[in-house]
# Entry
Amino acid sequence: MKDLIGNRRRLDLGRKARLLGLTVKENGLFYTGLLGLYYAGSAVSNLAFERMQTLRKSRGLPGVNSRSLNAEIWNSWNWEAGGDEWTPSAEWKTSLVENVLKPRVPEASDIIEIGPGAGRWTEHLIPRASRYQGIDISSTCVELCAKKFAHAAQASFRTNDGNNLPGVEDASVGIIWSFDVFVHINLADIASYLDEFQRVLKPGGRAIIHHGTNAGHTGGWRSDATTSELNALIESKGLQVAEQFKEWTDPATGDKHPVGLYDDAVTVIAKPA
# Structure
């Protein structure tokens, strides 16, 4: 909706008046009245959304990204689509696995996945793991994945509080992976997770996380985090930004793929060796 509203600015007032006249002529007053209500309603909706994001940031409100709301949402979610409701295309997903995941997750890694959901990325991580631990705020997801990947002896699943890594030993993990998760985690909880990254990663270990970049202003119910705030937090925890990108190019096809639909990014966080 937000981008459609933005596109209206591409027509000047005179052109809009001409279009209005043509619409009345071809469709009648009743249809045109309904169209006017739609446009007015969408403009009000957009204004309310922008005000919500600004208010949340200025007053430190959690919005819909608190840990309690995240737990409630993902415990109640219908996971029949397996998380692929967030996949723009099969080509995008295949390219992400081949060009984002595999080059950054070495084989035989000790891996933690934060927020496996229904196992959308888990199925690609477990074959690359000497040990895999899936940690999710949703008990529904933990139960689902435990059944789905019961055949994988190196895999285990458990719940957490939405900002910690319980049961993970200090300096024991080489790779942390999280996609479609940190986009919904607020800065205060990201800070707690970064403390955990510092604790559980081996020297030289890395965390690959997908996150929002602009405090939710492009939609998608993103968290209150901006890229600059995230980067400052990473540095404050004694960690380093090794990579950061909003798109990648598939060398096999030459196609460019966005990380997400809402100006998202992937950041690779390194613990110094």
Notes: Residues 2 and 206 are 35 Å apart (CA to CA). The radius of gyration is 22 Å. The mean pLDDT is 93.
